[in-house]
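Q: Structure tokens for this one, please.
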Amino acid sequence: MKIYTKTGDKGSTSLFGGKRISKSNIRIETYGTVDELNAAIGVAICEVTSEKIKKTLAKIQNDLFIVGGDLATPLNEEKMKILRTTDKMVTCLENEIDIFDVKLEKLKNFILPGGTKSAALLHFARTICRRTERKVVELSETEQINDEIVKYLNRLSDLLFIFARVENSNNNIPDIAWITE
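A: Here is the predicted structure, written as tokens:
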């Protein structure tokens, strides 16, 4: 099987179910941003020192394929049997947040992205996650989508923030406080 199909050479692509739409469509932009988020997490995994965080991030990467497929398949598409983003996926992220957050020093002020390279990369992935969430909300204003997707992305950005702090803490690097003058 060849990697190229030539079916998108005129600027359109297919959703799951076969409907063709422009590559500039907000739906395509939205699940493309999920793909970008997944790639950023993959880069962060290369630098993360905690094996537990690496394992959790690998699970999240798999879950993001579900999120992307969910976004690529309109809710009214009944022919396709695809996995959808679930409340259980959201709860798993909340459980991870609860496990790791209790180990961290309480925040007294805003922090800047940085510290260790792994923390900086996790913060970078977090910002892509926030953009992804905004794109999903934008899509939801014109098309019906699975409500669990926004919840999942919202919790994921929180977890990425926590993971960045954990990476700094595990490496004895303090979070960088935002200093107002």
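A few notes: The chain has one domain: 21-177. The mean pLDDT is 90.
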